[in-house]
Specification:
671 residues, mainly alpha, 34 helices, 6 strands, 67% helix, 2% strand, BROMI_M, BROMI_N, BROMI protein, PHAF1/BROMI
């Protein structure tokens, strides 16, 4: 290329034009310049005709002529070294040859010459395109003025253009300003509808990057509340287009605009809905857009300044913190924004994603502590209200409605009753708090003060509440739980949270390893040992869950110390027995079939096995074994085993094809 002529330039222009024409559709479909560059960089992977393009053939031949000898020499040298054991593997050989070739003088000269030539060729193509565009713009200007002065669409086509027959939409600052004026709510309905139609045809990047966007944003926010649904429909269509085709710094503008719109409507009383009246959610397009963005935003915001992320987080927390005036008579029955979010994201996945990375978690927790602690207070209050409701129902020996099963059916539901809304919001609050307590900065938000409760609520109080939900909330035998119901039942959700706590040393030490939490776990056991009436839902399931958590606690040194000696080993009193004594005594009673409430239960063998495993976790150490020896647990296990073997010998040999299994066989297996 040292002798680059005008003929060479024309040839390269023709080859490059052919390549761009072939990938035109892919480039046009790219939402941004960066995406278009990515498409071209990975063209060899996505285009099966890549090696048939004349431009690619030309480059391959040029590279071969320039550095081909260098590649051959380096390949021979590396192959010789590989035979002698100095280089191993094909991948290493390729890496060595590539590295040496790129470091060679020939390669540097080739890249320098190629860059200079391509600059000339590309500049010529750009100039040609601009000439074609201006020529067509002049030809079309008269036609545009005749049929519509507000249409800003140019059809740029020319047989000589490298981008012929491509549809473009151009909007100058003056045209955008005119669009803003036409979208003002004071304008006639027809004018605004026409302007909205033009807005939907314009590229979102032009709109969001313009100087007119702040004013346009205000007009769009006001138009979302227009009685005519066509306005909100078209605006949401534009917002959806922006979400799907724009980078984070632009979609942030749309998200905060929608969040602000909802917040203003709730504050103004336009969305003054009551929980007791239920809710029809057949039209919640705005909320769906917010939910989708909340889940996708964390994958993008780390590549942008923190202020962008902070605006998104703050607008969300500001919306969720909207509450009625406490003195308002309808305040307890107010359907706040968090209910709408819970309907779309019942397990608070948005909060999990936002707190997953330290970069965003710091911002979220800082804003919660500084300005939006009411969001946490409301979540705690929701859990307390549900617990009191369940506890009252259990004490009255009445069954609590199982809204988890109703919500989790495969049938799509667009209408919810008041109690269903309360349950869904409770699940959302429970999952949010469970995620919050994982992190030290989240635990530092406690204790909190609730308006309707004396004293503050600490982390320990919250963990006691979670534990009590295991046996006071609706639950069913493990064999009867369906997959969907199990996913959303309070007992299942609490167990998920406690499992996460047990797996994290720092979190477990601050949340679980306390006497208060241990006492809450042992409450059903202590009641059975003392012979007092047990107010729990599904006793067997509760005992299995309690044993599961106790075994996980006992598996860790600090947790085992808690069970053996209590929270403070030095101040432990001999007259106040620690958890280990209650656990061993209860296990012995189980093995001797001395628990009347469990007599004849199909799950009794499972319960026995679960508590034997807890004891095993404790007597695996010298300290634990020393504590358990006085109870002669080994003798109880031996007697139970002999009894099981004796009973199993009386069972006839199973016949092939029989599908019934004796409960004695099940007990023998577990023992």
């Amino acid at each position: 290329m040292s002798h680059f002529t005008s003929k060479d330039e024309a040839l390269l222009q023709s080859m490059l034009r052919q390549l761009l024409q072939s990938v035109k559709e892919k480039i046009i479909g790219a939402p941004s310049v960066e995406c278009a560059e990515e498409i071209l960089l990975h063209l060899e992977e996505t285009d099966e005709n890549f090696h048939n393009y004349e431009f690619v053939k030309y480059l391959r031949q040029y590279i071969n002529n320039t550095v081909g000898s260098v590649i051959e020499e380096e390949t021979e040298r590396c192959t010789s070294a590989q035979n002698q054991g100095e280089v191993s593997g094909y991948d290493t050989l390729v890496q060595q040859v590539t590295k040496k070739t790129r470091e060679s003088k020939e390669y540097r000269e080739m890249m320098h010459a190629l860059k200079n030539v391509m600059i000339v060729v590309v500049d010529s193509l750009i100039n040609k395109f601009e000439e074609d565009r201006m020529h067509n713009k002049e030809l079309d200007s008269k036609t545009k003025k005749e049929h519509q002065s507000g249409c800003y669409t140019d059809n740029c086509s020319d047989s000589d253009s490298s981008f012929n027959q491509v549809h473009y939409t151009f909007m100058s600052q003056e045209q955008l300003q005119l669009l803003v004026e036409r979208l003002d709510p004071i304008q006639p309905k027809e004018v605004r509808q026409e302007a909205l139609q033009t807005l939907c045809l314009a590229p979102p990047s032009d709109i969001l990057n313009s100087e007119s966007w702040p004013n346009l944003r205000k007009h769009l926010t006001m138009s979302l509340s227009d009685p005519d649904a066509t306005f909100s429909e078209k605006i949401l269509r534009f917002y959806a287009k922006t979400f799907s085709s724009s980078p984070f710094n632009m979609t942030k503008e749309v998200y905060t605009s929608l969040a602000r719109h909802l917040e203003l409507n709730f504050l103004s009383g336009e969305y003054s809905l009551r929980i007791s009246a239920g809710l029809d959610v057949s039209n919640t397009h705005i909320n769906h857009l917010l939910k989708k963005y909340q889940k996708e935003a964390p994958s993008s915001w780390i590549r942008h300044p923190e202020k962008y992320m902070e605006e998104v987080v703050e607008s969300t927390l500001s919306l969720l913190s909207v509450r009625h005036d406490p003195n308002h008579p309808a305040s307890p029955d107010f359907l706040s924004p968090v209910y709408f979010l819970a309907l779309l994201d019942i397990k608070a996945v948005w909060f999990k994603k936002w707190t997953h990375a330290y970069y965003s978690r710091t911002v979220v927790l800082r804003l919660l502590e500084k300005n939006y602690k009411s969001v946490i207070n409301a979540a705690v209050q929701q859990c307390l209200d549900y617990f009191e409701f369940c506890k009252a129902a259990v004490n009255k020996n009445s069954r609590v409605n199982d809204f988890s099963q109703q919500h989790c059916s495969d049938k799509q539901n667009f209408s919810y009753t008041g109690p269903e809304l309360q349950y869904i919001c409770f699940v959302h609050s429970l999952c949010l708090l469970g995620r919050l307590l994982i992190y030290k900065q989240g635990r530092n938000l406690f204790p909190i003060q609730l308006k309707n409760k004396k004293g503050s609520v600490s982390v320990t109080d919250l963990l006691v509440l979670f534990t009590q939900l295991i046996y006071y909330s609706p639950s069913y035998p493990k064999t009867a739980l369906s997959t969907h119901t199990d996913n959303y039942s309070p007992e299942s959700l609490v167990m998920e949270i406690l499992h996460v706590f047990c797996d994290q040393t720092g979190c477990a030490a601050q949340c679980l390893y306390t006497d208060a939490v241990t006492d809450a776990l042992l409450h059903p056991i202590q009641s059975l040992l003392s012979g007092t009436e047990v107010y729990v839902n599904c006793l067997e399931t509760t005992l299995i869950d309690v044993a599961d958590i106790l075994a996980r606690i006992a598996a860790v040194e600090d947790g085992l110390s808690l069970l053996l000696y209590g929270e403070n080993e030095k101040t432990a009193k001999e007259d106040s027995p620690t958890a280990v004594h209650a656990i061993v005594q209860f296990t012995r009673k189980l093995l001797h079939d001395d628990i009347s409430l469990l007599s004849g239960s199909e799950l009794l063998p499972v319960v026995k096995g679960a508590f034997i495993f807890v004891c095993r976790q404790m007597y695996r150490t010298c300290e634990g074994l020393q504590m358990l020896i006085p109870y002669c647990l080994h003798e109880s296990i031996g007697e139970a085993w002999k009894k099981t073997i004796l009973l199993s010998e009386r069972v006839p040999t199973p016949v092939t094809g029989a599908d019934s299994t004796s409960s004695i066989n099940l007990e023998s297996k577990n023992m």
